[in-house]
Amino acid sequence: MKKFSFILIIFISSVIVSCVPARKLEELQLSYDDLKSQFEEMKTLKEFGEKSLADLQTRFGTLSNDYEKLKSECDQQREDFDKTKASYEILNRNYKELVNSNENTKKDLRYELERLDKQLNDKKRELFSKESSLLAKEKEANDLKKDLDKLEESLRERENRVNELESKLAAQETAVNNLKNRLTNSLIGYKNSGISVIEKDGKVYVSLDNSLLFQSGKIDIDWKGKTALLKVAESLQNIEDFDIMVEGHTDNIPMKSSTIKDNWDLSVLRATSVVRYLTTEGKMDPIKIIPSGRSKYLPIDSSKTKEARAKNRRIEIILSPKLDSIMELLKD
To answer: Strands 242-249, 289-295: parallel, antiparallel or unpaired by DSSP?
Structure first.
């Protein structure tokens, strides 16, 4: 559950912090719902399977005891039958020997012979019934064992998938920490110059103050900002299995310019300028980077002071681990 919570946090954060078209947001939400539903279904099936396995094992134990008891009774019945049959043969032989010597004895022997014959038939029917019941119990036990084997195999497969999922999540968490450490070490010289690197909700955030990158109301990057961006690009040059979002943020002062319509426009244009520089001068793969704008709607500090507005004017490079392999595993 802890690992799954981590997935949920990653996924939800991906949706919250990413400014993409409404259709993309809906697709991400559907993917999240599907991921959550499949995980809950897997968990429910695993719990149900474990309970079913315990029930079947109990039934199998009871059936085995019944089988052994019935088998013992059947063996005893067969022994009684053999004894009765032997007595019948002895009396029948005696009867044949005495039939001509004594009528009374003959009648008595006939009566006894009929009684034993009836008893023998009763024993035969009882033995047949016991044997039929024994065969039915044996078949039921075999069928139950097959069900147990299938259920155990299913549980092993689900356990393997859960272990594989946990392994992927652990590897992903390690990759996030390694990336954060790499960026922190690469940008350590800019620690007090408006650049910070943090890990939050399973993502790595590189935050750059606008004072480092842009002049007020402008979208062209200053030379000192370009130097910092080249350091970032160098650290991210060969990054794999991460989506990169460059987000522009403004303060809540309305934008006044003949070329820039409003804060939405300014935040997107600044993000685009950063992406353009990272992909041209920084040689990063354009396919991996998405520019977006948040305008004034995601402030760090919502107070109305000059310092708060300065904090809110920033560029954030958000590195999100890809969930493709995890989602593919849950589809299997």
So the answer is: parallel
